[in-house]
Amino acid sequence: MTGRPLELTRAQILSFRRSVGALDERLPLTAASIRTAAWAGLQDSMPRAALLSLHARVNGIAPTALDHASLAQVWGLRWSAYVVAARDAAIFTRGRMPDNERDRRKFEDLAERVDAHLAGRKVPFGAVARPLRLHDHNSVRYATVTGRLRIRWEGARQPLLWTVPAPKLDYIAARLELARRYLHVFGAGTPASFQIWAGVRPASAQSAFDGLARSLTPVRTPIGDAWILASDEPALRGAPKPAAPARLLPSGDTYFLLQGRDRELLVPTAKQRALLWTTRVWPGALLVGAEVVGTWRRAGALVTIEPWRRLSRTEREVVEAEAAALPLPDVGGRMAVRWVG
User: How many angstroms separate the CA atoms of 338 and 275, rounded?
Assistant: First the structure.
């Protein structure tokens, strides 16, 4: 990780993010495409957010897409509900295992106790705390870093909880791969930004970057110095690809799952940042062409859109077409759009 930093512009970074995130052009409906769309995980803290994130990236996503055999749901980054490729579940769980041996043993022991108690059953996660004498219901989440817990959450009820055999992937290898995926999907990052995104301790984040040292290239971005995967440099230097006409990205979508100064790169105007990253539940992001140009929310069959600039008639038409195509089982394709402002 030596040498003069590569200068990257905002346009280069955002174009790269859209391209690797399959937001410029939807992928065909295959298990490989679904895995690509979930390369950095799909946050599902808002009901059906992961479904809508898949829809923004893959053609033909049906309301039942999260039941696809290639997907799994876990308590992943920052203990949030995540949908990931089933074959990658250990990356998003064991990759967050702490370095402290005492903590590791504690979490491994908790996973063993949960597994013994469930004995192959699937139960509401709130039914586990009392028989295992845990401090509270959420304490069981700590066992997720062992890679042995799976959940199913629809939003209306408690998630179902069950266990699976322990993965073979070492936690250090899992963390390195998690850091690779972070850098690949976001284009440029630092140990500090990775630490916040993944929900790991600062020392663990720094250790991951140190472990990737030989495969990283230093860069200078409009918001400061960072690192990229050396293998991504040609794509970052390449000509930007045409952006999709419009995408409706749900609350917590990977494309704008950012903190601190990283938000400034995506949305340069402070007033608009406050509208997108609110202090409560985030709205969705309205992506038109290469820029986030507003927010959106859904209530039943009604999508309310608040653009930050005047959209042309053509732009409004493509946004409305995106809204009409949202794969939501409770509305049956009868979405209506209300424009605000």
Answer: 18
